[in-house]
């Protein structure tokens, strides 16, 4: 099976709503099977570790825009950036 075939299948699965594609700025795309909710992600600036973050309050989109410009919003994509516990420890020791 070619790498292109894998990407084609992942794209089809994402289009069907069976997987979710995430791609933080400066990172390659990743796919996750956690779909059907509107959770967010944390990304470590040093090692690139990505973890899920549940919405603290409310249902999708979990955020309220000050002006929706007439859009009917149904999803918000938030990425929190920082240092994972391991990289934060290493940074303190350096």
TrEMBL record:
<dbReference type="InterPro" id="IPR036388">
    <property type="entry name" value="WH-like_DNA-bd_sf"/>
</dbReference>
<dbReference type="InterPro" id="IPR002481">
    <property type="entry name" value="FUR"/>
</dbReference>
<dbReference type="GO" id="GO:1900376">
    <property type="term" value="P:regulation of secondary metabolite biosynthetic process"/>
</dbReference>
<dbReference type="Pfam" id="PF01475">
    <property type="entry name" value="FUR"/>
</dbReference>
<dbReference type="InterPro" id="IPR043135">
    <property type="entry name" value="Fur_C"/>
</dbReference>
<keyword id="KW-0805">Transcription regulation</keyword>
<keyword id="KW-0408">Iron</keyword>
<feature type="binding site">
    <location>
        <position position="87"/>
    </location>
    <ligand>
        <name>Zn(2+)</name>
    </ligand>
</feature>
<dbReference type="GO" id="GO:0003700">
    <property type="term" value="F:DNA-binding transcription factor activity"/>
</dbReference>
<protein>
    <recommendedName>
        <fullName>Fur family transcriptional regulator, ferric uptake regulator</fullName>
    </recommendedName>
</protein>
<keyword id="KW-0804">Transcription</keyword>
<keyword id="KW-0862">Zinc</keyword>
<dbReference type="InterPro" id="IPR036390">
    <property type="entry name" value="WH_DNA-bd_sf"/>
</dbReference>
<keyword id="KW-0238">DNA-binding</keyword>
<feature type="binding site">
    <location>
        <position position="47"/>
    </location>
    <ligand>
        <name>Zn(2+)</name>
    </ligand>
</feature>
<feature type="binding site">
    <location>
        <position position="84"/>
    </location>
    <ligand>
        <name>Zn(2+)</name>
    </ligand>
</feature>
<keyword id="KW-0479">Metal-binding</keyword>
<keyword id="KW-0678">Repressor</keyword>
<keyword id="KW-0963">Cytoplasm</keyword>
<dbReference type="GO" id="GO:0008270">
    <property type="term" value="F:zinc ion binding"/>
</dbReference>
<dbReference type="GO" id="GO:0045892">
    <property type="term" value="P:negative regulation of DNA-templated transcription"/>
</dbReference>
<feature type="binding site">
    <location>
        <position position="44"/>
    </location>
    <ligand>
        <name>Zn(2+)</name>
    </ligand>
</feature>
<dbReference type="GO" id="GO:0005737">
    <property type="term" value="C:cytoplasm"/>
</dbReference>
<dbReference type="GO" id="GO:0000976">
    <property type="term" value="F:transcription cis-regulatory region binding"/>
</dbReference>
<comment type="similarity">
    <text>Belongs to the Fur family.</text>
</comment>
């Amino acid at each position: 099976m070619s790498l292109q075939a894998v990407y084609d299948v992942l794209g089809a699965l994402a289009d069907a709503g069976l997987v979710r594609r995430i791609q933080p700025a400066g990172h390659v795309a990743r796919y996750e099977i956690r779909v059907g909710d509107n959770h967010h992600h944390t990304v470590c600036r040093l090692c690139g570790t990505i973890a899920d973050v549940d919405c603290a309050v409310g249902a999708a989109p979990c955020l309220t825009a000050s002006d929706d410009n007439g859009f009917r919003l149904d999803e918000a994509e938030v990425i929190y950036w920082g240092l994972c516990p391991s990289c934060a420890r290493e940074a303190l020791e350096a």
